[in-house]
Structure formats: C-alpha cells, structure tokens
C-alpha cells in the first residue's frame, strides 16, 4: 500500500497513476494531520481493512493533478546514519579528509524534526557562501514502540519506507547543526508499507541534479543495513511510532545551488523532484 497526504491534507492511497481519497474511512482530520497520522499507524492493523474496503467507492484523482505533502506530517525524532557506505567514506576522505571512521564507530546522530519537508517543497539554502550537498537515502518510519530490539527482529517494527534527501552543509560544526535547517530532510513521495518491500537491503537508488546522474547506488552496500540501524537506534533510546530513521548515503554526493532541481528515485518505492533556492535572496522557486 502506498500512503500519501495530498492537497488540503487529505489521506490518499496511490494506485498506478491515480490517488484515492480514503480520509473518511479512518476518521482522518485534515485540520490535524499529525494527530490523525499517529492514530493511523498506531492502529493500522485494524484500519487497513477499512481502507481497503473504501478504495472501490472513494473519490479518485489523477496523481499528476494533486499536490503531495510530506507523507509523515510531523515526527518527534529523526535518527540518521553517518558514513554508512564504504565508497562514500572513500570519497569524503578524497575531498575533505574528514571521514576517518564509519558508522561502526560513530553510531547514529539526530536531525531536527523541524528539518522535515515534503516531495514538492523546495530546499532552502540558508547561506550563499557555504557548500551544501545532496545525499540520497532510503528512509523508513517506525510503526510501534521499540526498545532494545535486535536487528533480526526489527522488520516487524517498521511501518514503511520512502525516499529521503539528507541535505548537508559542509564544515566543522556538528552534523546535527549542519543537517538540521528547515527543509533539509525532504521525504516522499509516499510511504510504501513494509509488507510490500521484500528486502529493503537490496534496493537500487539514483539521484540526479538537473539532468546529471550524481548518485547511482544500492542499499545492498550498506555497512549497517536497515535492521541494524534500527537496533542501534533503539539501544540508545526508546523508539516510538512515527519516528524516522535515515540509513545513510552512497557515493556521489556533491554541491547543489540556487536554481537546481534535485531528483531521487528508489526501486520499488518511487521518487520525487524538488527545487533549490537561496533563502538570503528571497527568490521564489
């Protein structure tokens, strides 16, 4: 099932080239999508049947005619994986000599929940004179409360997957600061529920800047796979339904500038394209 939020914060199910409004099936409140979404994932085992029953009789729209929002309206935590691909470590050391260690030593770091944005929202660059890079990643959302869950048991705790961009300012500040500006975690275009992804640790991932392929990798090269990232996160603190985990980026990261278009595509999930703008110039994208 592909779960999306669209137009005036309606709940939609994407099937092919259409999106079906199933808001009424789950008592979805467009005025409070955050609370509604939390209730949806916490009670999905019950609500899934209602959604499936409603699909045949609910209003549908061409997908191309709607505006998609972040499929996660809000979150309390975003855990992110640093240096989780060996070839990314190699390229960072060639460019900046700043990646002596991988996730095996670094564990995870937190990004601000306020950095979350959607698949049609522009990336806003806060500085004109700082290099800011794209990082293509597979992200997922936690489906239920978890603490000290082992990697081999993590699959049943994951609600679904989406494409994610981890936008990163280069510099000497802590990762959390450099990666937590508003609009620095675009996700989407929808959530693909975990039951539809047979193996999240073997998905092809591609990123373009304008028409140039910059990143062309696969999650099969993760150092800590999706489930190991989950284990590390919930060994540190309790994970709750609605928390997000970003699994790290493969090689090919590079700078983005005002006027660029960044597109990400992940096998079995889908993709989205966003504009890049300079905040200091106050120019509309």
Automatic annotation (TrEMBL):
It comes from the Bacteria. Belongs to the FAH family. The lineage of its organism: Bacteria, Bacillati, Bacillota, Bacilli, Bacillales. The keyword Lipid biosynthesis does not apply. Residues 77-276 form the Fumarylacetoacetase-like C-terminal domain. SUPFAM superfamilies: FAH. It comes from Metabacillus endolithicus. PANTHER family: FUMARYLACETOACETATE HYDROLASE DOMAIN-CONTAINING PROTEIN 2A, FUMARYLACETOACETATE HYDROLASE DOMAIN-CONTAINING PROTEIN 2A-RELATED. This is Fumarylacetoacetate hydrolase family protein. One of its GO terms (molecular function) is hydrolase activity. The keyword Repeat does not apply. Gene3D superfamilies: Fumarylacetoacetase-like, C-terminal domain. InterPro entries: FAH, Fumarylacetoacetase-like_C, Fumarylacetoacetase_C_sf. Keywords: Hydrolase, Metal-binding. Pfam families: FAA_hydrolase.
